[in-house]
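Notebook B, p. 112. Complex prediction, attempt 2.
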Amino acid sequence: IAGITQAPTSQILAAGRRMTLRCTQDMRHNAMYWYRQDLGLGLRLIHYSNTAGTTGKGEVPDGYSVSRANTDDFPLTLASAVPSQTSVYFCASSEQGDRETQYFGPGTRLLVL
Amino acid sequence: GENVEQHPSTLSVQEGDSAVIKCTYSDSASNYFPWYKQELGKGPQLIIDIRSNVGEKKDQRIAVTLNKTAKHFSLHITETQPEDSAVYFCAASKTDKLIFGTGTRLQVFP
């Protein structure tokens, strides 16, 4: 069992380009989350999905979009990247019956130039 | 909304000593308080959590205490070891949306 996988591991992206960060979990968790981690700011929630077919906005959603076509996958898209989106991005998931306990992926390190 | 403050931002201890990290939260309705450990280049991993109906919880060398009146909770690591070196995050939640503190970098020197 892999848990949560994220791809790519790291990426350098030119400003203005479109980028999709991939997240897949094999635990059949209903809820999934995207966070960004910046030095001195901890982890901040970007978007979340309580179940397949639904999504919601977190603390810092601007400039990002998500989709949840099925239980396992929760991609995060930057439609037109800007340098302030340089960050480390973590995907997480949790069970329906214990939504507070979140399990994190290994992260994607993104640099926007 | 909820706000979580975490102190200190860095902490250095000698191997075998204890380490304490403190967090305060603003929303009195928060009822779930997890602690995550993040090693270099990895995602955060849950190490211990506590709910608002409990004042203290222990798991081997790790313990968490909660003071609901003062709205603060703390992580205690006893008999620290070099492998405890990492960044530790506290969080608070009243639903399934975790609000994280800004992290504490713990260094344990042999």
